[in-house]
Amino acid sequence: MKTNTTNEVSKKHTLQLGNNPIFTFGKENLGILIGLLVLCVLLSFLSPVFLSKNNILNVLRQVATNLYIACAMTIVIILGGIDLSVGSTVALSGVITGGFIAFEGLPLWVAVVCGLLSGMVVGAFNGFLISKTTIPPFIVTLSTMNIARGASYVYTGGQPIRVMSDSFNFIGSGYVGDIPMPIIYLVIIVIISVLIMSKSKLGRHIYAVGGNPIAARFSGIKNSRVLFFAYLFSGLMSAIAGIVLASRMFSGQPTAGQGAEMDAIAAVVLGGTSMSGGVGKIGGTVIGALIIGVLSNGLNLLGINSFWQYIVKGVVILIAVYVDFLKKGKGK
C-alpha cells in the first residue's frame, strides 16, 4: 500500500510540474538555457565587470530594441515568411518622429503616433502584397527595405536630425527607479507576444497556417488575415524600436537599424524557431537574443574588435539552422 501511495504522489507531483509554465519553459529550452548559463559563467571569470549591476542593465537595454523586432519576427518566421524591411523601418520611424518634433514643432505624442503609423504603413504594405499575391516575402520585404531606407535619406537629406527635447529623450533614456525605460517596454511587449501566441485564437491560427497553409484554409482559417497581421505587427514593433533608438541617440538617423534584420533573425533561429515555419516560441527567442547580447557585450569587455561580432552572428545563425535541419532529419 505504501509503495502504491508513494507512486501516486510521485505521479501527481510530476503532473503538477508538467503543468507548471516555468518547468515547461525550462524543459523546452534546456539546451540554449545551458548555453546561456555557460557563456555567463565563462565571461564572469574573464571579466570582473560582466556581472556588475550596471553592465547587466546595459546588456538588457541593448537587447531590448532587438527583442522588440525579434518577437514580431518570430511570428513572421513561424508563418514561413521573412521580413527584411525591419531595419529600414527602424530608421524611417526614428527620423519621422524626430523630424516632426524638431522641424514641424508638433507635440511629442503626435510625433510618436506618426512614427508608429509610418512603421505600420510599411508593415501593412508588406502584409497586403504577401497575403494577396504570390510574390515571395523575401522579394516584397527586400523592396520595402530599400524604399523605407531611401525615404529616410530623402526626408533627412542624409543628415541626422538632432532632437533637443527632454520628454522625447526620456522615452529611450529615462528610468523608473533603477530600471531603464527600454527594459520596461520589453517586458510589456514580450508578455503581449506570449499571450498572442499561447493564449489566443489568433496564435493557434498562426501555428496552423505556418504548419500547413492548405489544411488551415480548408479548416476555415483566413490565411490572408493572419499573414497581414504578422507583417503589420512587425512594422509596429520596428517602429517602436526606431523611436526608442532615436530617443537614446538624441536624434533621428537615416543610417539607424542597419543589420537589425540579421540580429532579429539570429535571435529567432537560435531560439529554436524553424525557418520552414510551424514551430517556434517567443520564450526561445528571448533566450536567443540574450545569448547574442551577452556574446556581443563579452567581446566588447574583452577588447575584441567589434567586426568579429558579424562573424560570430553568422556562425550562430548557421549552427542554429543546421541544428534545425538535424532535428527534422530525426523526425522523418
UniProtKB/TrEMBL annotation:
Query: Cross-referenced CDD domains, in alphabetical order?
Result: TM_PBP1_transp_AraH_like
Transmembrane region(s): 30-51, 63-86, 106-130, 137-155, 175-197, 226-246, 307-326
Signal sequence range:
none
Major site of localization recorded for this protein: membrane
Check the record and name the InterPro entries matching this protein.
Answer: ABC_transp_permease
Arranged from A to Z, the UniProt key words for this protein are: Cell membrane, Membrane, Transmembrane, Transmembrane helix
**Superkingdom of source:** Bacteria
Q: Where does it reside?
A: Cell membrane
Task: List the GO cellular component terms.
Answer: plasma membrane
| Stated name of the protein | ABC-type transporter, integral membrane subunit
